[in-house]
Design brief:
Layout: H1 2-9, H2 43-58, H3 72-81, H4 86-104, H5 114-138, H6 144-159, H7 185-210
Helix pairs in contact: 2-3, 2-4, 3-4, 3-7, 4-5, 5-6, 6-7
Length: 211
């Protein structure tokens, strides 16, 4: 009886419980856990990153025609907004948009005073601010590079239709009159070409974040 009572009373000693679950890792870009702590990137550094990306993408358009630089604005913005708040994403989208549109629309200054040119650039950059906020939100979703590319194309469609008739100048697809993305135009026109360019950029960002 003593042995039986002792057996029932003594606790069963097993492995200590741990609060750490198995590490969740993905199998491809957009699913793996980022290893770059972008949330701690200073806001100034993130702003500089998207400004450089916007300027680089501007060089993909005439008269420079450096086609493959078109992916750098989406790539830089995707890295900068990843894991941030929608408000921060909006600021970074605005900064990227201004860096792109101010020089890209410089031709307007040849026919108009400076303020309409800058106002036009600010108007167009405002759409990228909305997109940047959306990107910050979807950056937490699985397959976020695809969602970001879709939002980019959706933002371009909105910009080209609203308001006062829209202003589609500077769509990513317009930077690719020739090159590896051009053949996609036969299947989906400029939107599909732009989607492919944006997706290439966001996949590059996903690779950078998970290396």
């Amino acid at each position: 009886m003593g042995v039986a009572a002792r057996t029932r009373a003594d606790p069963v000693i097993g492995p200590e419980p741990t609060s750490e679950g198995p590490e969740l890792t993905g199998t491809g870009p957009g699913t793996a856990r980022p290893t770059v702590d972008v949330a701690r990137m200073p806001r100034g550094a993130a702003t500089l990153l998207v400004v450089l990306g916007g300027l680089a993408t501007m060089l993909a358009f005439p008269p420079y025609d450096l086609r493959m630089l078109a992916i750098l604005a989406p790539a830089a913005l995707a890295v900068a907004v990843h894991g941030r708040s929608a408000r921060s994403g909006a600021w970074l989208g605005l900064a990227s948009g201004l860096a792109f549109f101010v020089p890209h629309l410089a031709w307007a200054a040849e026919y108009l005073p400076a303020w309409p040119w800058l106002l036009l650039a600010l108007w167009q950059a405002g759409y990228l601010a909305l997109m940047g906020a959306g990107w910050a939100v979807v950056s937490r979703l699985p397959l976020w590079p695809v969602w970001m590319a879709a939002l980019w194309v959706g933002g371009e469609a909105l910009r080209g239709r609203w308001f006062v008739g829209g202003f589609p100048w500077g769509r990513l697809g317009f930077s690719q009159p020739d090159g590896p993305f051009t053949s996609l135009a036969a299947f989906g026109g400029v939107p599909l070409v732009g989607f492919a360019v944006a997706l290439t950029g966001t996949l590059l960002a996903a690779t950078v974040l998970t290396v």
